[in-house]
Amino acid sequence: INSSATEKLFVLNMLNSPDLNSLIMQCNFISVEVQFNTQNFEKIYEMLVNKKRNNMVFQIGIFIDEKEFTSSYFNGKTAINSVTFSPSVKIINTGGLFKSGSFVACSNLTSVKLSSSLELIGDNTFSECSSLTEIKIPASVTRICSYVFNKCTALKRVIFEANSSLKDIGGFAF
């Protein structure tokens, strides 16, 4: 990656950031695991992915530790391949059926680890995640809203944990 002095300085600062869990850089491969922080993630994504050379391969893992996760910032971010929600996350919701979900069209998303205390998965959250093959729904989930996994064409296995609290599954959720 051809980098300006500003970008090189940002990488050096990023290495000292508490938001960075790991960074692996090889010839044509970069793997990054970051805690969710919109400002830092936006800079990382812009610098690494949007300015990439054609032969670069990215794996970006996101760790989310917010009680109520409401961001739709990740929509269409095709370099994201994994998302892990900490046990403190109780709600994933971007505000309604006609708003974009949190991870819409993350076409390379293959791994989602939902919070063990999650209660609600909001509308459209993972719709059009065409590489997602399996999802495990925690027993704590009481509601799966509409279109949550709609157009997840590779989704072949949905596992509901024993003693499920699920009361409602919205229209076209799967």
Overview features:
single chain; 174 residues; alpha/beta; five-stranded mixed beta sheet; five-stranded parallel beta sheet; 2 helices; 12 strands; globular
Task: Note down, in words, how this protein is organized.
The chain is built from 2 helices and 12 strands, in the order αββαββββββββββ. The strands form 3 sheets. Strands 1-2-3-5-7 form a 5-stranded mixed beta sheet, with helices on one face. Strand 1 and strand 2 form a beta hairpin. 27% of the residues are buried.
Estimated radius of gyration:
17 Å
Query: Which secondary-structure class do the elements indicate?
Result: alpha/beta
Terminal Cα span: 39 Å
The major pleated sheet works out as: 5 strands, mixed
Q: Which sequence of strands runs across the widest sheet?
A: 1-2-3-5-7
Tally of contiguous helical segments: 2
Order of helices and strands: HEEHEEEEEEEEEE
Query: Could you tell me the number of beta strands?
Result: 12
User: What general form does the structure show?
Assistant: globular
Helix content: 10-25%
Mean pLDDT: 81
Contiguous low-pLDDT stretches (5 residues minimum) are: none
Q: Beta-sheet strand percentage?
A: 25-35%
